[in-house]
Amino acid sequence: MTDQKGLTDDELDAYRSFMSMNHVLGRHLARHLKQEFGLSDSDFEILVNLSESPHRRMRAVELTRVTQWDKTRLSHHVSRMEKRGLIRREACEARYPDIVLTDAGWDAIVTAAPANAARVREFFIDVLGPQRLAALRDAAKDVIAAIEEHMNTDCPPETSRS
């Protein structure tokens, strides 16, 4: 990045507004998940991924990839969820175990997901409306594509993947 320049006031305001929205919405949803269902936002992320995967299981390495967590964080969090009976590890032929959604984990996601989706609708989908939602979706895909291109070309190896 040899041509670095600062952001204009409008650019900085837009970026900060986006970051603030993301933070406020995420924290608000997380508080409701915790208070109403006893789930952290991290619990919910793991449960969603497992509930949407075939046979309600994923290889630990794949779960690390889709959550973008490092192996240590995933291992510690899986251990906490395992103690609560939401998931279990199953050994397999490969190096990393399968992480499997238990019946209690399935019940937890089936109970919490509708309330979470209703809040996402109330505070995000309905507030934006169809046109702004489509524009935001397209913009998000473009930003993700630009980051992936950077990671695959000139991003330092220690920064591109954790």
Automatic annotation (TrEMBL):
Q: By its UniProt entry, which SMART domains does this protein fall under? A: HTH_MARR
UniProt domain HTH marR-type: residue ranges? 32-132
Q: Name one GO molecular function term.
A: DNA-binding transcription factor activity
Gene Ontology terms: biological process: response to stress
Matches recorded under InterPro entries: HTH_MarR-typ (IPR000835), MarR/SlyA-like (IPR039422), WH-like_DNA-bd_sf (IPR036388), WH_DNA-bd_sf (IPR036390)
Coiled coil feature spans: none
Query: This protein is called what?
Result: Transcriptional regulator
Q: Which organism is it from?
A: Mycobacterium cookii
Which Gene3D superfamilies does the record match to this protein? Answer: Winged helix-like DNA-binding domain superfamily/Winged helix DNA-binding domain
